């Protein structure tokens, strides 16, 4: 998964911890126990979206084939470009992420049509994972796809946390904010979700297409104002139209809808923590819901690591959540790589400290391609090797070019799509 080179022992340990984190949340591991039986006299209609949804479809197919019920299931899953997998029954459609594309509209509209086709004896099974907010994009009436796409790009560059981004996006969608559940009603609906959001709130996972929404149109307008985003006239009009309000708790169209989280960041961090403890580290978990500017969080974590070193403690500092990057330069990278670059600068070559930051879906920002890095590693000699290669770490950080910094060092995490998504995983190992 990671390039060979110096720091072999700690590199291998960091790799092992990262792999444990994302493998724990793989659909083949976490999904089968939650799959429902086929309803008597009916069928299961599978719909869904997200970075892990193709693997969820594969796991679901295998389950129903093993139980001799494959002729009772059908459906369509949307996933990110490059994340598709071969299936025999459930169709797979690849769409844009983090910026939606034409297939994002096609997938959302076909999901709505399948939802509406459910009869009284049928069960709609929604397989949902992080990334669905972009992968399913059916704009509300009066909003063009181009306007919504442009707004998504603005939000991504603003530094807004994912919860606030999704607040805006769900109020401009015909599928998010409980509206997919409304399309299923009165048929029965079961959502099985892999969480990628801080706090595991169902209305934030994939922008909550099948649950009540706590946010309002007023909240969405406030987000744009907070991040100094001036919306186009059609976006502004849509966010002022009460017809675009999302479903709220108590809405009768949610009466036949059930929701289960089958994997969450907390379990992935604990899987890695178990291994670290076996290796003699005292684990300090900062939680699975961290948010904030990547470089700022990195500086705070570096100080914690340096303090542990001063105390001669063997410690593993772990955290999850989803950090953000306020884009000011024209470089390439993502929040995990930028965190790693910020960490390297803050540690300033301190011996006995190494770290990793990676997105558990296998891709960290960048160009949105399946071959983009998942994150990066930091070692005591990172800055020394960079200087020898004529790489100025501070200038690369200023230009938001963390990929450009770590690639020549061989310290990018290059694993490709992991077929799940439980958000970011970060670990700093201190071994004085």
Plain-language structure description:
GO terms for molecular function: glycerate kinase activity. Residues 316-424 form the MOFRL domain. One of its GO terms (cellular component) is cytoplasm. InterPro entries: GK-like_C_sf, GK_N_sf, MOFRL, MOFRL_assoc_dom, MOFRL_protein. This protein is an alpha/beta fold. Helices cover 37% and strands 16% of the residues. Helix 1 (8-24) runs antiparallel to helix 11 and helix 7 crosses helix 9. The longest helix is centred in the first third of the chain and has 17 residues, at 8-24. Mean pLDDT is 95; it is low at 1-5.
What's the arrangement of secondary structure elements?
Blueprint: H1 8-24, H2 27-30, E1 44-49, H3 53-66, E2 73-80, E3 91-95, H4 102-116, E4 123-129, H5 132-135, H6 145-158, H7 162-170, H8 179-184, E5 188-194, H9 217-226, H10 233-238, E6 257-263, H11 265-278, E7 282-285, H12 294-310, E8 315-319, H13 335-347, E9 353-359, E10 375-378, H14 382-388, H15 393-398, H16 402-406, E11 412-413, E12 424-430
Parallel strand pairs: 1-2, 1-4, 2-3, 4-5, 5-6, 7-8
Antiparallel strand pairs: 8-12, 9-10, 9-12, 10-11
Helix pairs in contact: 1-11, 7-9, 12-13
